[in-house]
Design brief:
By secondary structure, the chain is mainly α. It is built from four helices and four strands. A two-stranded antiparallel sheet has the order 1-2. It has a two-stranded antiparallel ribbon with strand order 3-4. The N and C termini lie far apart (142 Å).
Length: 164
């Protein structure tokens, strides 16, 4: 006697793991396949200093997502743009310098903005202090605004001398 089969539905579970783009996770064969090049090419690029894969505790090369993207860029420069490896090295050096200059510019801009805010705050504080001093002098009738003045020129009023 056979037992009837139940209609079972399969449930698939998908797990997503996020890995830092700079963490070495691919062995050389996988990285080479992802970058569409021979593993020996990756070794040559490493010896030229174009790429620096991480190393496992046992010394195995481990390439990151960033490394694979860099390999693809190198492939594009040599294949599509016709650059030799010296040219690729120069382009990568210039890009690194450009990034450093962008950071320096951003830092200088932030510093300038901070100094401008501080300057405005100091100016406002000085204006408030000067106005408080002027108001105090006015209350004692020692200072009056000079008529006909276009600005806040002040004139000290001295009482007439007593003849005695």
């Amino acid at each position: 006697m056979s037992t009837p089969r139940r209609n079972q539905t399969e449930t698939r579970v998908t797990t997503t793991i996020e890995v830092d783009a700079d963490r070495g996770v691919f062995m050389i064969s996988v990285a080479a396949e992802l970058a569409e090049m021979h593993p020996q090419t990756l070794r040559m690029y490493e010896s030229r200093g174009l790429i620096e894969p991480k190393r496992s505790p046992k010394g195995t090369r481990l390439y990151s997502h960033s490394d694979v993207e860099r390999l693809r860029r190198i492939q594009e420069m040599t294949g599509d743009l016709g650059l030799n490896l010296a040219g690729v090295e120069r382009v990568l050096d210039l890009e690194r310098e450009l990034e450093q200059e962008k950071r320096r510019y951003a830092e200088a801009t932030a510093r300038l903005e901070r100094l401008q805010r501080e300057t405005v705050e100091m100016r406002d504080q000085l204006r408030a202090e000067m106005q408080a001093q002027i108001d105090a002098l006015r209350q004692r009738n020692e200072v009056v605004l000079f008529r006909g003045s276009r600005s806040t020129d002040l004139v000290r009023v001295t009482p007439p001398r007593r003849r005695g």
